[in-house]
């Protein structure tokens, strides 16, 4: 190889080095942006998907306007503390606070809790509301005199036992869309998916104390049809 060729070759290599460096920097930036976006996407979506992977799947399905109205309607003569178990985006808690309740929400999804706090602040009820990032099975609801739950049928029997042992006998419980399996409601309001059932703690606690189980009309019908 002539000296001239060597000279030309080394000149080309020197030009290629900065080009290679800038290409690898661009590669790093792209990797960073794609990786960061995937991590952010995971952080946002995981809390919404996680409930589906739990033993009892309780997804985020917000209450309809009619459902919220029915809840507030059946509690219109009540006051004091209220809790929404699995408070979602905070709509029931915020509406209750606007009706004079000191209202709290317990919710597993941190995004929904932060959003609820922001919405409560924006709607001017942040002083009479509180939102907690908590698993409903790991907290006690003993301090609440009004309890609201929009659950799923698979969890209602366990929740019945939990609330029976925790709540004072002055409490009222409102179930949205799905009733409790053995408690007898004192009344219902609304229809279809907006139905709410109201339960008096004095009644369901006295049944427990007397060691009796209450039967819904449906269970009695089923039993009758087998005899
Ligand atoms: C059917 S939504 C009801 C939302 C709200 N209460 C409403 O009526 O608009 C049920 C909520 O419970 C939350 N959730 C699910 N599992 C939970 C758990 N173990 N502890 C607390 N909240 C839970 C879900 O993230 C969801 O927001």
UniProtKB/TrEMBL annotation:
Q: Which organism is it from?
A: Salarias fasciatus
**What coarse category fits the chief subcellular location reported for this protein?**
mitochondrion
Compartments reported by the entry:
Mitochondrion membrane
Q: Which domain of life is it from?
A: Eukaryota
Q: What is the lineage of its organism?
A: Eukaryota, Metazoa, Chordata, Craniata, Vertebrata
Q: Which residues form a coiled coil?
A: none
Indicate the transmembrane segments per the record.
26-50
Q: What is this protein called?
A: ATP synthase subunit C lysine N-methyltransferase
Any one annotated GO CC term: mitochondrial membrane
The UniProt record lists the keyword Lipoprotein: no
UniProt cross-references to Gene3D superfamilies, sorted A to Z: Vaccinia Virus protein VP39
This protein's membrane topology, according to the annotation, is:
Single-pass membrane protein
Q: Report the sequence similarity comment from the record.
A: Belongs to the ANT/ATPSC lysine N-methyltransferase family.
GO molecular function terms noted in the UniProt entry = protein-lysine N-methyltransferase activity
| Record keywords, A-Z | Membrane, Methyltransferase, Mitochondrion, S-adenosyl-L-methionine, Transferase, Transmembrane, Transmembrane helix
A single BP term in Gene Ontology: regulation of mitochondrial ATP synthesis coupled proton transport
InterPro entries per the UniProt record, alphabetical = FAM173A/B, SAM-dependent_MTases_sf
């Amino acid at each position: 190889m002539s000296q001239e060729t060597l000279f030309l070759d080394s000149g080309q290599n020197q030009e290629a080095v900065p080009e290679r460096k800038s290409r690898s920097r661009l590669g790093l930036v792209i990797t960073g942006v794609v990786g960061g976006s995937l991590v952010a996407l995971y952080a946002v979506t995981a809390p919404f998907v996680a409930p589906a992977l739990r033993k009892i799947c309780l997804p985020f399905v917000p209450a309809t306007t009619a459902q919220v109205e029915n809840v507030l309607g059946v509690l219109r003569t009540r006051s004091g503390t209220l809790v929404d178990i699995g408070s979602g985006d905070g709509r029931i808690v915020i509406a209750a606070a606007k009706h004079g309740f000191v209202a709290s929400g317990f919710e597993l999804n941190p995004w929904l809790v932060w959003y609820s706090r922001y919405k409560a602040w924006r709607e001017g009820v942040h002083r009479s509301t509180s939102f907690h990032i908590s698993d409903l099975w790991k907290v006690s609801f003993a301090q609440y005199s009004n309890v609201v739950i929009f659950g799923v049928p698979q969890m209602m029997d366990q929740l019945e036992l939990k609330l029976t042992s925790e709540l004072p006998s002055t409490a009222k419980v409102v179930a949205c869309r799905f009733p409790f399996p053995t408690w007898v409601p004192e009344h219902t309001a609304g229809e279809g998916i907006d139905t709410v059932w109201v339960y008096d703690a004095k009644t369901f606690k006295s049944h427990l104390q007397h060691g009796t189980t209450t039967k819904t009309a449906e269970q009695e019908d089923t039993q009758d049809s087998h005899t």
